[in-house]
Amino acid sequence: MSHSYLQPFFMTFSICSICLIILGCSGPRPILYPNDHLQQVGPDQAEQDIEECELLAEDYVPEHTASTVAGNTAVGAGAGGAVGAVSGAIRGGAGIGAAIGAATGATVGLMRGLFQASQPTPAHKAFVNRCLSERGYDSIGWE
Fold this sequence. Notes:
Elements: H1 6-24, E1 30-32, H2 36-60, H3 66-91, H4 94-118, H5 122-134, E2 139-142
Antiparallel strand pairs: 1-2
Helix pairs in contact: 1-4, 2-5, 3-4
């Protein structure tokens, strides 16, 4: 039995997944208020100081764990499997519907987990903000 009707779905889903991964890789950065210190040192030095504070935060602040990503994947697989089974039962194929739903849900859960893991935690942001403040900068938010 051929499942050629699944090929366009998986192709579209793969392209969307790649786009999400690319977007997820560029995390938010602190926005600096143009105070006297920033104006004195200039944007190049400020960028270097942000990078140094980011590196320090990576050393001292715990980030998202693999268990967070795994948990999102498992929840996505369970929810997708349930929805797929119901949808498949309505169409006369609960088994294949559950399988497709579980695979889809797991992938969405994985993407969600990876995206969350690429975002800095509140503690990471607070660490970077304090580091920048101690260097004379005034962080007004993250973008």
